[in-house]
Design a protein that fits this description.
- The structure is a single chain.
- By secondary structure, the chain is an alpha/beta fold.
- It has two domains: about 10-125, Response regulator (Rossmann fold, 3-Layer(aba) Sandwich), CATH 3.40.50.2300; about 135-225, Orthogonal Bundle (Arc Repressor Mutant, subunit A), CATH 1.10.10.10.
- The protein has helices spanning about 15-30, 40-50, 65-75, 90-100, 110-125, 155-165, 175-185, 190-205, and strands at about 10-15, 35, 55-60, 80-85, 105, 135-140, 145, 150, 170-175, 215-220, 220-225.
- The longest helix has 16 residues, at about 190-205.
């Protein structure tokens, strides 16, 4: 189940268990709640669903790396981001900042230095960060998606497709990629089946959220999920 923390928290995205545990221990000493994820795609979904107060983001992550995660976050959120990198040349440091990161720390680092930077960014952002409840929650164990607190009555194939789209907001998935998701059930499905499932997904979400238009058709390619944003704020509408 994807965990959405109800209170203010720091999201640590680090695939090295020792470093993640060290940061979590120091954050606890600072009186800060934290959530640790080791996967970039999962971190992006967590930020979209339930915005943290700050993100500590490692550059080198499996799959979706920290630079890609940072760039994606900046399309809908101004949450403070500290990037961790083992790279020491200036180009990579600047790359991290140009993606929208607020600060960077090179490994190996002093945990106290990281905490000082965390506190500085939290003080700077205080007053402009408005914590909001989760827009959606995905429960992988129960194969369920809740939207604005309402459980959507999804079929297994609809769940698989929506889970994929929700996990990568803004990314365009071709019909063939979506078909691969459906083929996991070893059924004979076609492009038309994909369109039919998308139509059903839209209808079921709109039943609890009439303004929903998040599943966007990309002509000649496939579909993408655009997380709803507040007008002029670039934050999720919750």
């Amino acid at each position: 189940m994807i965990h959405v923390t109800p209170d203010a928290y720091v999201l640590v995205v680090e695939d090295d268990p020792k470093i993640a545990r060290l940061l979590q221990d120091y954050l606890k000493r600072e009186g800060l709640e934290s959530l640790v994820l080791a996967d970039g795609a999962a971190a992006l979904q967590q930020v979209t669903a339930c915005r943290p107060s700050l993100v500590v983001l490692d550059v080198m992550l499996p799959g979706l790396d920290g630079v890609e995660v940072c760039r994606s976050i900046r399309t809908f959120s101004d949450v403070p981001i500290i990037m961790l990198t083992a790279r020491i040349d200036e180009l990579d440091r600047l790359l991290g900042l140009e993606t929208g990161a607020d600060d960077y720390v090179c490994k190996p680092f002093s945990p106290r230095e990281v905490m000082a930077r965390v506190q500085a960014l939290l003080r700077r952002s205080q007053g402009r960060l408005n914590r909001q409840p989760a827009l959606w929650v995905v429960d992988d164990e129960k194969l369920r998606v809740d939207w604005r607190g309402h459980t959507l009555g999804l079929t297994l194939l609809e769940f698989r497709m929506f889970r994929l789209l929700l996990g990568r907001p803004g990314r365009v998935f071709s019909r063939s990629q979506l078909l691969d998701t459906l083929h996991a059930d070893e059924r004979d499905v076609s492009d038309r089946a994909v369109d039919s499932h998308v139509k059903n997904l839209r209808r079921k979400v709109q039943a609890v959220d009439s303004s929903f238009d998040g599943i966007v058709s990309v002509y000649g390619v496939g579909y993408r999920f655009d997380a709803p944003v507040a007008s002029g704020q670039g934050l999720p509408v919750l």
